[in-house]
């Protein structure tokens, strides 16, 4: 498969009163053409910062201090903001977490859809309007000419999210990044949005990089899954492997916390403790204070990525100490 995005050893830090603190710590992954990579983990584990690093949209006090980001063979970390603008909204687009705050309340939907067309294409005024109508129809909005004239507050949450997708697709991007695209939407609209994104991915051949904490969403749309904890990638694999044979105790904890409506006797499990602060000094594995399998070694040495199968890796010392099958069904059971 053709690799669209290749991220290697990414370290993203923030300048604070306590010094420069890393929020993303040595993250490596790739996204291929026509596939969906889902990044999962608790709030604060570095998922959104990873996507903002790729987009070049970090806050003023944030910076990439190590690593590389290659998009279609081009190194993005060395580019200026002006150079990145040529990619943003054109080759790489992003759907932000909350459309009501991402959309500008003082401009019409039509104005905001045409904005990337103004920046990245040479279409005439009439052609841009036709393209905007096509996009709104493509994302399933009825009466698109009427929607073009509306302001964001005049639309429902589901309609605003569809408008965000239309804006992101305006220039037929090769890579679509979606940060919690179904947050605050009811389950019916959520399913429609996910189906829409999956159909558009297949039709346009895009690569999709989706950030979510909802394991149900992951099961529905992902081809591959990357599990993050405290700025680290702790497990990666095909979606079937992650759900059927999770290897890292943190991944097991996330899956155990998903409600099972088919099993009335199923008890939800919680991962004890909370994510460490950026300035919290933790030696060894950063998950060891919360891990039911923590050994002395875990508190001293950071584990490497152990290969479980061809496409499945887990960052846990248990793979060195015991056969993974011995503890596969013990954690959070």
Automatic annotation (TrEMBL):
SMART domains: AAA. One of its GO terms (cellular component) is plasma membrane. PANTHER family: DIPEPTIDE TRANSPORT ATP-BINDING PROTEIN DPPD, OLIGOPEPTIDE TRANSPORT ATP-BINDING PROTEIN APPD. The keyword Transport applies. This is Stage 0 sporulation protein KD. It comes from the Bacteria. It is a peripheral membrane protein. Belongs to the ABC transporter superfamily. The gene is oppD_2. Coiled coil: none annotated. It is found in: Cell membrane. Residues 5-255 form the ABC transporter domain. One of its GO terms (molecular function) is ATP hydrolysis activity. GO terms for biological process: peptide transport. The lineage of its organism: Bacteria, Bacillati, Bacillota, Bacilli, Bacillales.
